[in-house]
C-alpha cells in the first residue's frame, strides 16, 4: 500500500526517528515500524494525528490507498460471486437425479433453492461487471489479473460481443441439459 511510503517520507522529511514519531502520537515504536512495513494499518484517530503532525491532509497521507482498498474489495467480491456461480451452475443440474430418486417431486425444492442461488450469483456478477464497466472477456480477464486492458483487443471483441453472448448462452444451456441428463442417468 501507498500509506507506508507516505508515512516514511513525511517522517524523514520532519527528521523524526520511529521512536520520536511514536512518542508524539502516543503509540509504540513497533507500531510505527509495522505501519511502515505494511504489516498493519492505523485507525482513523492515528491517521488524523499523523496528518495534523505532518501538517498535511488525510488525502495526501493515504493517497492511492483508498483506490487500492476499493479495488481489493471489488476483487474479493468478484471472486466470491464468480466461484459461487460456478459451483451452483454445476450443482443445480446435478441435484435433479438424486432429488427425484430419493425424495420424488416433494424434494424438487432442493434444485429450486440451488438454482435460485445460482441466479442470484449470476445477477451479482453482472452487477459487478456493470459497476467496473466490464463488457468483453479480455476486460474481465484483465480485471481478474489486475493487468492493463489492450484497447485494440477490446474494440475487436466488441464487434462480436452479442454473437459471443448468444453462443455462450446456447452452450451453457446445452451443458446444463447434459448435466441434468447425466444426473438422471446416474440415479435412475
From TrEMBL:
Keyword Transmembrane set for record: yes
Annotated GO MF terms: DNA binding
InterPro entries: Cro/C1-type_HTH, Lambda_DNA-bd_dom_sf
Key words, A-Z: DNA-binding, Membrane, Transmembrane, Transmembrane helix
HTH cro/C1-type domain location: 7-61
Domain of life: Bacteria
Transmembrane segments: 78-96, 108-125, 166-187
Pfam families to which the protein is assigned, alphabetical: HTH_3
Entry keyword Hydrolase: no
PANTHER family from the UniProt entry: HELIX-TURN-HELIX DOMAIN PROTEIN, TRACRIPTIONAL REGULATORY PROTEIN-RELATED-RELATED
Protein name: XRE family transcriptional regulator
Annotated organism of origin: Vagococcus silagei
Lineage: Bacteria, Bacillati, Bacillota, Bacilli, Lactobacillales
Amino acid at each position: 500500500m501507498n500509506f507506508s511510503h507516505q508515512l516514511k517520507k513525511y517522517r524523514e522529511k520532519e527528521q523524526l526517528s520511529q521512536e520520536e514519531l511514536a512518542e508524539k502520537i502516543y503509540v509504540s515504536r513497533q507500531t510505527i515500524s509495522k505501519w511502515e512495513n505494511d504489516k498493519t494499518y492505523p485507525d482513523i484517530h492515528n491517521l488524523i494525528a499523523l496528518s495534523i503532525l505532518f501538517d498535511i491532509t488525510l488525502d495526501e497521507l493515504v493517497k492511492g490507498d483508498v483506490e487500492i482498498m476499493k479495488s481489493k474489495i471489488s476483487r474479493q467480491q468478484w471472486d466470491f460471486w464468480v466461484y459461487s456461480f460456478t459451483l451452483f451452475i454445476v450443482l443445480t443440474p446435478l441435484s435433479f437425479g438424486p432429488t427425484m430418486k430419493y425424495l420424488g417431486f416433494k424434494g424438487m425444492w432442493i434444485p429450486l433453492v440451488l438454482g435460485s442461488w445460482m441466479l442470484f450469483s449470476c445477477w451479482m456478477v453482472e452487477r459487478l461487471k456493470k459497476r467496473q464497466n466490464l463488457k468483453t472477456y479480455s476486460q474481465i480477464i484483465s480485471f481478474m489479473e489486475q493487468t492493463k486492458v489492450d484497447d485494440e483487443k477490446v474494440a475487436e471483441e466488441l464487434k462480436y460481443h452479442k454473437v459471443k453472448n448468444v453462443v455462450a448462452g446456447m452452450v451453457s444451456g446445452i451443458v446444463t441439459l447434459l448435466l441434468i441428463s447425466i444426473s438422471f442417468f446416474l440415479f435412475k
